[in-house]
Design a protein that fits this description.
Order of helices and strands: HEEHEEHEHHEE
CATH class: Alpha Beta
CATH topology: Rossmann fold
Strand content: 15-25%
CATH architecture: 3-Layer(aba) Sandwich
Number of strands: 7
CATH superfamily: Vaccinia Virus protein VP39
Helix content: 25-40%
Bound molecules: S-adenosylmethionine
Radius of gyration: 17 Å
Shape: globular
Distance between the termini: 50 Å
Number of helices: 5
Structural class: alpha/beta
């Protein structure tokens, strides 16, 4: 376990507490109300979403590659008496079969993964053809001046945010991976520094055709 990873895991909930209270938790609640069936959450961190899933979901699987985070997550699952399978794995290589899940949840994760295209490909692979990606991600600004500042400050942000990039075109990457947006809210992460403020909250259909479904 790296010292940086351990420090980030210890400080994470405190770092985010103002942002959660200023609206992030409300976004989480609204989005996760749409989760149903077999649900997979990638990069679940300290488990901020755990208590927000609807009672009726069939199963919850959470993944987390950082061991310090995974330990906090395991403790939270126990403390909240939540039934969830925890697997330590990066989202670039999800240890699941094809079409196992009805929903995949990614909140503030696509900013940090090493390879966004590979992760989005893996998410599509494990989603059923009717499945959805539910996401909350901070992204590159549409305003050129702020986007330039995001580029300048990205190195610093990667250090403070343990690998988090503030200048990624995540929405475009979701589209390029073959997802089809069915819901999108462009908003801001209130109380966050300006360069991590632009936020997208949405749902995207996998659009993977079932085998033999071409042309049908
Ligand atoms: C900013 S935190 C978000 C945590 C949580 N999803 C939330 O909403 O509070 C980013 C998380 O992504 C995880 N992460 C980093 N690289 C990853 C990867 N390649 N695959 C999956 N998760 C990753 C980190 O360990 C961390 O838990």
């Amino acid at each position: 376990m790296s010292v940086g990873g351990w420090l980030f895991a210890c400080a994470y909930d405190r770092l985010l507490s103002g942002v959660e209270a200023a609206g992030l938790q409300a976004h989480r609640k609204r989005l996760l109300a749409s989760a149903s069936g077999r649900v997979l959450e990638i990069g679940a961190g300290t488990g901020a979403n755990l208590t927000l899933y609807p009672e009726g979901i069939e199963s919850l699987t959470v993944t987390e590659p950082e061991s310090a985070m995974a330990r906090k997550l395991a403790r939270r699952i126990r403390d909240e008496r939540r039934t969830a399978a925890l697997i330590e794995a990066p989202a670039e290589q999800l240890p699941f079969g094809n079409a196992e899940f009805d929903a995949v949840v990614s909140t503030l994760v696509l900013c940090t993964v090493k390879d966004q295209a590979q992760v989005l490909g893996e998410i599509r692979r494990v989603l059923k053809p009717s499945g959805c990606l539910l996401f909350i991600e901070h992204v590159r600004s549409d305003e050129p001046q702020l986007a330039r500042w995001q580029d300048r400050l990205n190195g610093l942000n990667r250090i403070v945010g343990h690998g988090c990039n503030c200048n990624r075109r995540t929405l475009e990457a979701i589209g390029a991976a073959g997802f089809r947006l069915t819901s999108l809210e462009r908003t801001v992460l209130h109380k966050a520094p300006p360069f991590v403020r632009p936020l997208v909250v949405g749902i995207a259909e996998s659009g993977v055709r079932p085998l033999g479904g071409l042309g049908s």
